[in-house]
Amino acid sequence: MKELMRSIGPWMHGVIDYGSVIILAVAPRVTGFSGKQAWICYALAVVHFFLTILTRYPLGWVKVVGFPIHGAIELLVSVLLIIMPWLGGFSRGVLSTHFFVYFGLLLLVIWFLTDYRGLRGRTVK
Asked: What's the Cα-to-Cα distance from 115 to each of 22, 56, 65, 106, rounded to whole Å?
């Protein structure tokens, strides 16, 4: 179990981030939800893309946001995604509610598995 904790390093997390941007950008069209839910997805895709390119990790381009700060933002966003259908007033939309809750849970799992502080592979003396 211990080897699973914080098993995702910065490079793999970057790959996951770019994949998440794509998922957020295409989800409304693929799943068929529209309106406010779709615009929230598109806005999150743009915000996540900029966070990704600005993060100080191997796949970041500008590298101004520290990886631990990136992780804190993702933790907040994952919790907000889980409660977004109720905050946004679209909890009756089954497709969009399921998408937001499950995607938020997925991001939360990724957050738990990511080594944001670079401790993976260090040995304790």
From this structure: 23, 14, 16, 16
